[in-house]
Amino acid sequence: MPEAAPRVGLFVTCLVDTFRPGVGWAAVKLLRDAGCDVDVPRGQTCCGQPAYNTGDRADTKAIAEQTIAAFEGFDYVVAPSGSCAGMLIKHYPQLFDDGSAMRAKAEALSARTHELVSFLVDVLGVDAVDTQFDGTVTYHDSCSGLRELGIKDQPRKLLGSVSGLTMEEMAETEVCCGFGGTFCVKYPDISNNMVGNKTANIGATGADTLLAGDLGCLMNMAGKLKREGSAVQVRHVAEVLAGATDEPAIGEAK
Amino acid sequence: MSSIDKSKIDTTASRTRILNKLGATLATGKDRDARAEAVKTHLRQHKRNLVPERGNVEGAERIALFRAQAEAVAASVVEVKSADEVPEAITAHLREHNLPARVKHGDDPGLTGLPWGKTPTLERDSGPANGDDAVSLSRAFSAVAETGTLILVSGADNPTTLNFLPENHIVVLDAKDLGGAYEDAWDRVREAYGAGTMPRTVNMISGPSRTADVEQTIQLGAHGPRSLHIIIVNGE
Amino acid sequence: MDITSPAFKSNVKRALADKQLQRAMGNVKVGFVKKRSAARDKLPEFDQLRDQARDIKDHTLEYLDLYYEIYEQKVREAGGKVHWAATAEDARDIILKICQAHDAKTVTKGKSMIAEEIALNEHLEAAGITPVETDLGEYIIQLRNEPPSHIIGPAIHLNRDQVEASFRRAHDHLPDERSLDEVSELVDEARQVLRQKYIDADVGITGANYLVAETGTSIIVTNEGNGDLTQSLPKVHIVCTSLEKLVPTLEDVSTILRVLARSATGQEFSTYTTLSTGARREGDPDGPEEYHVVILDNGRSDMLGTEFQDMLRCIRCGACMNHCPVYHSVGGHAYGWVYPGPMGSVLTPTLIGVDKAGHLPNASTFCGRCEAVCPMHIPLPKMMRHWREREFEHHLTPRTVRTSLGIWAFLARRPALYHLASSVFIRALKLLAFGRSRLKSVPLAGGWTRHRDLPMPEGRTFQEMWRAGGHE
Q: Which structural domain, as residue segments, surrounds residue A63?
């Protein structure tokens, strides 16, 4: 780590930006508490996955180039999402021809980009947070974070340090919740079957709170839990780690 | 060797088209001799890839591993001290399982040469299976401790059908023929038949026949033998 | 067989409403996953073997033309014959001709996905030859006149009571009082019925899991022993296989065999692995007098050198579908052709055209579980994405998707406009919500709200708040 406070560019992600800005503030707090100097470049929009996963490579590349430019000069780029971080880390480089200047830039961005919780634990060496959460939580491993970035133990480690918090693991926690970006609206019936399995597994734990590291999955699971009349509260893991749980949980009234 | 083909089908045109297409994609711009040499070398050397450590055991340990692995896949295994004890081990097995005192086997000297006089009540037939045999007897060419797998080869003295059609299969394995890994068996095959040559059929057999096609429930005796009994001749 | 892949969405609806299917799929997602994981844990070198298995196939594909020349020479030396089939039609004609040359009335068949791909049974039946499937699962679905729903467990979509009903319907010798309540009784019944068929058959047809160039050998891997009876009793053995099955040496195939059963069923090794080389030898008391290998291309050679080449490494273990939550939801028939699950979603468009199979590579969340368990490290999600790119390039992507994506991308490429639009968008949504924290229906978002509520935004974007200098 550099001597001075590391300069972190927060990749907000479009869902956090629009639907749950509180996650962004929780991320900022966690990063500042860990000694980072945080900024939020204006030149960012979305990571480009909606275009990428629809097969629109030209727009994906244009968005990637824009993101790469927006985050030049930061020591690190951090996103409160395994999926968006995975896009920057694993997929941006592959968009550009081997040996091209953009490929080199994409690889440089990839090398300094991290998902929030794994950044705290693996890069900054954070092993505990000083906060309280009274309740039993269960944690869903979002696919990209888990399988592209190897995020599994890091959130559990930090959650283990939250006083008052009990962890109750669900069955099939590594199985997809059925969100899949545009998948959930293109194939709503399959998605519903998948999220229905997920909410059954969540319910079986008896936990009062569901946590995960990706807002897309969280909105999907929260939407289904609420439709089923479940009392389970749904939050981004960063909210609990930052002690930012005064605001209502996802989809809950003030 | 028979190579009759009554059908007289000629697919040369397709062959040329397919192989030319492969060549156009794979060989264009590459050195022809270098490619040919790479293939020849790979085949000539037939190098071992990573062989799991598990099978790397000798002597009694190797036999113990083979036994454990074969038993884990529902084969039964006994050890005898010499080939002379095999006939009695067979009759003991047949008696214990209420099987008729009759076995069918090929003309393998390793079987015909056994002291059958010791078990006068045991009837023996020779030849391939015909569908009516309750019990067959075979001699293993080799075996692999890694997964408790028997290696049986076809030949004039070793009908393949005996390995599959009868309900019960007994196999005699000389401990000297037991290897640790599959690769050990291939070395033995090359030694016996010459590199690049195989008997018509090599059967790798791990336990009796089974299926899980109905509700993933494992059920023994699907089409092949319901039971597999292995007699290891371990002369130490 | 009929292709219903274009009707994927209605197939899905039917599958999700099918209680028997849903019950059967409940077994699949638990059983296979646990068994594979236990088998992996028992072999410390498992992941290294996967890497090597991938490298072996990549090496073979790089020299495929040369290895085939050697393979063919070896088959000939062993008294066998290789037939080359550019298309499915070629392959079934070759097989029919061989059968007719022997005046075949019945042929027994071991499990072969290539035979399914070329719709062999229909072709033989049309020519008056009766094909008898001998793999228990294949036998069951043949009785039911259904295609397989899984590449290694063709009848995995069925429950015991459905199998019993099919047996009672087809086996008219069965007295009503004969119990078929237990799986063992069903297996025994099939065993008895098929026994004589093996002996009576004129020709035996099997697939091949692998071909070995070094020795001219074909290999089948089974648990039941049906494939062995199929190929050792009749006078003629036909191997029905495809271009990507070749492996150089016995050592190479050993490595692949070590990952095959563990990935597929979680067994350390399948019960029967049989290596067949040529025809019955001089003096042999049994075995086929003729040995034919039919090698099907059917578009595979076109995949070489493209972004789909890695798919040719596939060893048909089924691990990808065993771990796929989409497959678990809808079963194999919904995919509408021979190959279901993630491997099918990549392979089917190459074989029947992306215009017909376009839904398949789209019906994935890219959760990555298939790639994570694939013994050959095939990047299945990446190749599904390639198909989506092809569809996008060829304007096969639905117009509504294209239009909304176009508007979104226009904004996403202009940050200032994008941030403004985001603010306007969430304010509009907030207005629509009338103070509610979530909505049960939202115009143009029926895909979402049909099954779940849509949580409402807080009212300002993070970017707005950040620019305004802080929280709240």
A: 7-122
